[in-house]
Amino acid sequence: GENVEQHPSTLSVQEGDSAVIKCTYSDSASNYFPWYKQELGKRPQLIIDIRSNVGEKKDQRIAVTLNKTAKHFSLHITETQPEDSAVYFCAASGGYNKLIFGAGTRLAVHP
Amino acid sequence: EPEVTQTPSHQVTQMGQEVILRCVPISNHLYFYWYRQILGQKVEFLVSFYNNEISEKSEIFDDQFSVERPDGSNFTLKIRSTKLEDSAMYFCASMTSGAYNSPLHFGNGTRLTVT
What we know:
Chain A contains no helices and 11 strands.
């Protein structure tokens, strides 16, 4: 069935360092790949997304890359700040307009 | 900026009781969803709804679950006979159009606690 694997489950970095989170998906028909940030007790919020006709997208300190052949995509956060600390979820489109989420990565940025 | 709104924010119920979780999607959105998140785990798809009918449902969405759009604004999730394992955060979400031409917007969630 449809599945999204996400690694690592936890990530600890020093402020100013880069953070990379990786996801793989199983459904070759997936064509949309958003990333969500979830702070404790709050809703997931979209931070960046990429569609299958694009290999890379950047928005200030965050970027996402997509390798359709290998069926994996990654989130890159540069110059991390303490307020980047949260749980990050990748997702892939599947079925009839639904999103399948990865298990999440808890990012801790230490001052 | 328009938001998806959910009520209540927290619902406590006893096992075996029925609960109804309510959502008001963004007004010009056409696709509606319920997701759930057990504490500390991933966000799981439950059901999608379009044109007044279910488009797709997961294996979690068994006969105990139902959804309804009783009027032009509300979108509800009913659990007929709650179980302990139904305790989770339930998120409603909506989207303008299909094929992800627009982002999926989540509500703030309803935390359901079954005792």
